[in-house]
Design goal:
Elements: H1 18-28, H2 38-50, E1 57-64, E2 70-80, E3 87-97, E4 108-113, E5 121-130, H3 138-145
Amino acid sequence: MAATKKAAGKPEAEVKTKAETKAKTKAKSAPEVHAKTDRTAAIEANRHESGDSNRNTKIGQVVSTKMSKTIVVETTRQRAHALYKRVISRSKRFYAHDEEGLARMGDFVEIEETRPLSKLKRWRLKNIIRRSALVIEEATTNEQAS
């Protein structure tokens, strides 16, 4: 109906419909494509693998492997302060179940939400994204000491 009305003092060629205007603004505000980091690539790859899973996943660094079948994963997130706009880093530690003991200190891993396994454990190791470069095995240090 808006397309049939003529604008006062404008020729018909200059009169635009609402749909044409919306299409133009959407084309202008298309998001720029950035290079993918290791973390975003891992998140997208796991999203396609799991498909139907609605479980929450997090990516973090292993900070402790001293317990049997349990690792402590620290995740950090950065966000702007609401008032001052300064970037603030917040970190949180999660206890995760590692059945085979595959994760080592310093590894970047992905953990997945699961049923409560103990008082503090509600996560399990899903996969290891990147191995730590500097890992000193406890067995080799004990052998060198004796």
